[in-house]
Design brief:
The protein is an alpha/beta fold. It is 25% helix and 25% strand.
């Protein structure tokens, strides 16, 4: 059995609910024959990290090291790992394990986040009872199948947000077959939304950006949007009803806004949730009948979809807009993110 090079992993962990992390170390699980050990160079801060630290999506296993936008170099590999070698630059997203068997209904449909044996990168439990810990650390051990080589055309620091935010917006576009000429709307021009504009534009769609911040107009157009709608301007909103084939919701919109979103859709359009609003969603059922609009959601993307995300981003020059913080300033970065001031993703440098 191959021994790992780092037998105590040092990171920044939350000891209890709240946006405060502190130095903490743990002994990693033994390196399996299909695992790799990664020396982390960059880790992105995702909105999921904040929700987990604040226990807004349910209980959190404390101490908790979050972070699932990981980029680093392979320093050790299990004896059965053949597609990676030491020194390879790889990325890890929000998932670190699934069965990936052909007879698995989820995995065989590239929906491995729904695999009954899936393990997410943090706040999850392995079959042996060990808790998964994330990327706000100097190293991590994961299944090699969930570590993907970073294409040379992608700057490593910009690769980190693609591992979660990138695949989160691109996966439903692939599954739903967004294509050239489709009219695609993006609500919320932030960490997810600014990437959604770029991916939809790369697919050849006619993109409309929706935001209540008119100062984002020029940036949205530069990212690839053809139209910009200031949602605080009733006349602009009224002029853009019944036009979209797809609408991707990337912000935590209020639960009573969805009837408004439906009115922006053409017949048989699809509203796709990529962010999770608080509480219950409120609809007028008749809106579905008279509009023939569907509302659906999407959970990250399987490993094959993540690979396609990286390849597509490299081919089309898609890159997140980021702010960098050194890892020892992680608490400052978390507060900056929580205040809604990040433009648009934060990457921690290790």
């Amino acid at each position: 059995m191959v021994e790992g090079k780092i037998n105590e992993i040092h990171g920044w962990a939350a000891m209890k609910r709240g946006l405060k992390v502190e130095p903490w170390s743990y002994k990693p699980r033994p390196l399996g024959e299909n695992d790799i050990e990664i020396k982390i160079e960059y880790s992105g801060i995702c909105g999921s990290d904040l929700h987990t630290l604040k226990e807004e999506w349910g209980p959190t296993y404390f101490p908790a090291i979050v972070g699932h936008e990981i980029v680093g170099k392979v320093i050790t590999k299990g004896e059965k790992v053949t597609h990676l070698k030491e020194g390879d630059l790889v990325g890890v997203g929000a998932q670190v394990l699934a069965c990936l068997k052909n007879n698995c209904h989820a995995c065989s449909n590239d929906l491995d986040p729904h695999c009954p044996y899936s393990v997410f990168t943090y706040n999850a439990e392995y079959a042996d009872g060990a808790h998964a810990q994330g990327g706000y650390a100097d190293a991590v051990r994961v299944a090699a199948s969930y570590a993907l080589k970073i294409p040379e055309r992608i700057d490593p620091v910009h690769a980190a947000p693609l591992m979660c935010a990138g695949v989160t917006v691109f996966a439903p576009m692939l599954r739903k077959g967004v294509k050239k000429g489709d009219r695609v709307g993006v609500v919320g021009i932030g960490g997810l939304g600014h990437l959604a504009i770029q991916f939809a534009n790369g697919l050849g769609a006619e993109v409309t950006a929706y935001s209540h911040s008119p100062d984002k107009r020029e940036q949205c157009l530069k990212l690839g949007a053809k139209h910009f709608v200031d949602t605080s301007d009733k006349e602009q909103v009224e002029a853009n009803r019944h036009k979209l084939n797809y609408l991707f919701i990337t912000s935590n919109s209020k639960s009573n806004q969805y009837n408004e979103f439906i009115s922006w859709m053409d017949f048989e359009g699809q509203v796709v949730l990529l962010a999770i609003p608080e509480g219950h969603m409120q609809f007028k059922p008749f809106e579905f009948i008279k509009s023939e609009v569907a509302i659906t959601g999407s959970l990250i993307g399987g490993v094959n979809v993540l690979r396609k995300t990286l390849e597509f981003a490299a081919e089309h020059g898609i890159s997140p807009i980021i702010e960098k913080y050194p890892i020892d300033k992680v608490n400052e970065a978390l507060q900056h993110m929580d205040a809604g001031k990040a433009r648009y993703r934060i990457v921690l440098t290790h």
